[in-house]
Amino acid sequence: MLEGIFVDGLIFSIMVIGVLISYRILDFADLTCDGSFATGAAVATMAIVNGTGLATALLLAVASGAIAGVVTATIHNRLKVPGLLAGILTMTMLYSVNIRILGGRANVPLLRITTLYTRFPEVFSMVSNPWALLIGTLLIVLVVKFVIDIFFRTDLGIAIGALGSNEQMIVSMGMNPKLLKVIGMAISNGLIALSGGLLAQYQGFADANLGQGMVVQGLAAIMIGEFLFDSNRISLITLRVVFGAIIYKALMFLGRYYGYYINLTPSDLKLLTGILVIVSLIVAQTRSAASSADARKKALKRNKARREAEIQEATHVED
Amino acid sequence: MLRIEQVSKVFYPATVNEKTAIEYLNLEVKSGDFITVVGSNGSGKSTLFNLIAGTYPVTGGKISLNGKDVTNTPEYKRAFTIGRIFQDPTKGTAAKMSIEDNMVTALHKGMKGLKISLNGTIRERFKEELKQLSMGLEDRLRDNVGLLSGGQRQALTLLMTVLSKPEMLLLDEHTAALDPRNAQIVMDLTTQFVKRYHLTTLMVTHNMQHAIDFGNRLIMMDEGKIILDLSEEEKRSLTVGKLVQKFKSIKKHEYASDEDLLVT
Q: Could you give the CA distance from residue B255 to residue B264 in angstroms, rounded to a whole number?
């Protein structure tokens, strides 16, 4: 049971890292996510059903997500529309595409077929079934986190980070911001699709509606993570995203499990997620207002001390 | 180095808001020149810089850099030759990234690869470079740039611009938003770097004394045209009073507000 929350949270955390890249690092409000998550699930499922290897299936899922990201970035770059609209366009189109990928059905099961989650108990046979799933998922997440951490320490990764903070600086340094956006969005949606591909295997089916509300859930997880600790180092930022994702899933589990005491139904969880994001935003705002008020006070105090010191010095000279 | 031929810029053409910002402007900048640019607000100085850098397309005319026609070259490609510093100290650096990350992106111009340049050797080099600023930044490599003061950020921007090895500097009132002490430091660093790296420089300033003291040529702009172009010799005997007088005699009428702007 408890292991289930962790597996769920870890799979989800790969998607949240993808959302982190678009929202926080690139500063691109990307809604492609809602579509590309299901695309990843659909592609991986159909690949597995058609007998490709598990690794190939996941790679295909990543590639399909990356293509979705490239499409969004290209719409944004070429037509000069806001990222939000570009994302909505891709997301809407992906809904049709996903059903096509699933062979005209909205739901394809993965029953009696070898998936990663039937393989994990065989590979890690020394532990019980739920623990095997947890260890397998954890390994995948660690590899993804490691690769992303390394990537954002390369010159290209740093440039993508700088783009999100200040586009003019990237232009001044002779880089094409459009190309950087395409690369960043490809990575972001590639990860999101990978997460979808894993979830389909874990829950045993792919669904065209799997991605619904993913963006907001991802944001909620990012914000929960940001409460944990403050850092500008990428390895700690991705770590806190993983923690945030697991905590979010745990909260949602509690909501589902104990919610009926207060008459909560599973359909209320989206509302709760939205409220969670709003509360996080309010808390973050209050916090930053408090810290800047504090900084202002300190600056005033410093100025006063300096002025007094100057006056004192002046009187000394006169003496 | 830079040649501007018959360049004009019209904003919102064919609408009621149509405004001519630059009119048939010609300018030839020789390699190694340090030109100060003065003029009242709205005279077209910043627009001229935007046209040179490629931020806006020209409405007509031709711009060439090192003999190559760059009229239709995008801004990021022209940036290989041009280093630009804005009045706003936040424009040149990424606030949400550390000083070292900022400096890494400035190490060379152009698209970056999957190399990890940031290692011990580079950090030592960054520390050495930052020491020149004498602002104590060499001990704060991992601090976010957003934590720095305006003066520190502008000095860092200047250093990063120079690190990326442009041939030409466009300084758009780059000390105007700073307090006098920091403005002095940034200005000193500017002249130091310009000399050391033989940078061709165009500097917009509202400080008449700076315009006279620095550089080997002074141009004054008004209503999208260059109305005064003084060589090094002519500049030597120039005072702020004479410059204002010249402006008035060209304009032939008094602009109280302009005069205020020029004197301060």
A: 15
Helix, strand, or coil (residue A110): coil
CATH number, domain of A122, equals 1.10.3470
* CB nearest A153 (choices: B77, B106, B116): B116
Position B42: which residue type? G
Q: Are residues A172 and A241 in the same domain?
A: yes
If asked whether residues A219 and A303 sit together in one domain, one would say: no
Number of domains in chain A: 2
The predicted-structure confidence for A154-197, as pLDDT tens digits, reads as follows 999 999 999 999 999 999 999 999 999 999 999 999 999 999 99
| SS3 assignment, position B108 | coil
Of the candidates A153, A173, A179, the beta carbon closest to that of B79 is on A173
Distance (Å) from the alpha carbon of B227 to chain A's nearest alpha carbon: 30
- Tell me the C-alpha to C-alpha distance, in Å, between residue A224 and each of A37, A144, A229, A244, B96: 21, 21, 10, 5, 20
- Cross-strand bridge partners of residue B200: B168
Suggest the residue from A23, A166, A172 to mutate for an interface test with chain B (most B CBs closer than 10 A): A172
Q: Residue A278: give the domain boundaries.
A: 265-319
What pTM did the predictor assign?
A: 0.87
By the 8 A CB rule, do A192 and A21 touch? no
The ipTM (two decimal places) reads: 0.87
Q: Check CB contact under 8 Å for B117 and A173.
A: no
